[in-house]
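dumping this here before i forget
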Amino acid sequence: MAATLPALRLTLPERRQGRAPDDALRARRQETGFADPEKVAKLPLIGGVPCVIVGNENAPRVILHLHGGGFRLGFAAGWAGFARRLADKADAKVIVPEYALAPERPFPAAIYDTLAILAELFETSGGSPVFLSGDSAGGGVALSAAVALADARRLAGLILLSPWIDVRVQAESYSRCATTDAWFSHAAASASASDYLQGWSADDPLASPLLADPGGLPATCIIASTSEVLADDSIELARSLATHDVPVSLLMRPGLPHDWPVVTPDAAESDQALGIIADFVMSELSATTASLEK
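structure:
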């Protein structure tokens, strides 16, 4: 049975049959301790999607966080440590889903999974604000899901860490930051985009949500590095949101790696980033409460 989705303003393409990963991707998954199928099978389901859930069940806010990995790597349990730090700092229940990955399940499967989870959270959160968050490619999926929603302001806010939101892979920062980004590159982005799109147009605003109309999105917090190849994605998104009167905060730190709040957990800058996120969700919670009381 198809998962229930919230009302949408953009039409999602049908799910598509993907292809098997090549030997190189299989090897990378093995090296990074890819998701254990037996453990995944035991995870609770939200919207039909297995999810790792951390934090206080009765916390005053819920954060749905989509992990990074270039649309084809990463797994929910691998982000449990980050989710725990975020939950503690923001006094939140944090949910990390095992969303669909390419190339086996290409675009738009991950967006379907995210929207199905949101549909259930909107119905079951008991009035607690629901924030949508993501890092790297997970940030791209999060933004795609948000722009697809008919009423994106059912979300209390968006949190995007080094988001990859333009899979055309043509931003000037790919060349400007080629020597300062040790985690991501034009070549890696091109390979990942190929596995994710599998012939679909990168100009589709659901595939490259930087191209979408951001009007109606909730307040957004963006954190990235000026030294990463995705720097321009964050800068251009902040400019677009501001132009469309969407409240936006942008923190760009120099000399830090791609996805630094996740990949450098012991750095003082990462702890500060979590504090900024916590302030953001708490301020947005206050704004939401005030609006409801009017």
